[in-house]
Design a protein that fits this description.
By secondary structure, the protein is an alpha/beta fold. It has a single domain, classed as 3-Layer(aba) Sandwich (Rossmann fold), CATH 3.40.50. Helices cover 34% and strands 22% of the residues. The strands form two sheets. The chain has a five-stranded parallel sheet with strand order 2-1-3-4-5, sandwiched between helices. A two-stranded antiparallel sheet has the order 6-7. Helix 2 runs parallel beside helix 3. About 9% of the residues have low confidence.
């Protein structure tokens, strides 16, 4: 099980990711924008961060920059975006283009966190 921070300004996507990753056995916390995300990142220890890119206030690139300049700079960060070409040349550990399969996200998390994968019944659900 991993402690994961998911940051996205779209409430439906945020809740869908949280629900799905919880079914995969992870402890998931959410933030509705980058500023809230970095506050939570500073308050607790996360094994991995999943962040949307295009958000108001502080975007996903700002979140990534903050994490890479923190004492926990090696924390894996997965960027999710409807515009994945905006992430080229950035320092994300992985990039997922929306829409994506929840199973794909779970596989990335498994690879970064080295935890045994769980197999929920809705493992191939798509996030659109």
């Amino acid at each position: 099980m991993c402690h994961i921070l998911v940051i996205d300004d779209e409430k439906n996507i945020l809740e869908m990711i949280k629900m799905a990753l919880t079914k995969f056995g992870h402890d998931v916390e959410t933030a509705s924008d980058g500023e809230e995300g970095i506050r939570k990142f500073d308050e607790k220890r996360f094994d991995l961060v999943v962040t949307d890119i295009k958000m108001p206030r502080l975007d996903g690139n700002g979140v990534l920059k903050y994490i890479r300049n923190s004492k926990r700079q090696s924390t894996p960060v997965i960027g999710i975006s409807g515009t994945p070409w905006m992430l080229e040349g950035k320092n994300f550990d992985a990039v997922l283009a929306k829409p994506f399969l929840i199973k794909t996200l779970a596989d990335y998390i498994h690879n970064f966190a080295s935890v045994p994968p769980a197999v929920p019944s809705a493992g191939n659900a798509s996030l659109s």
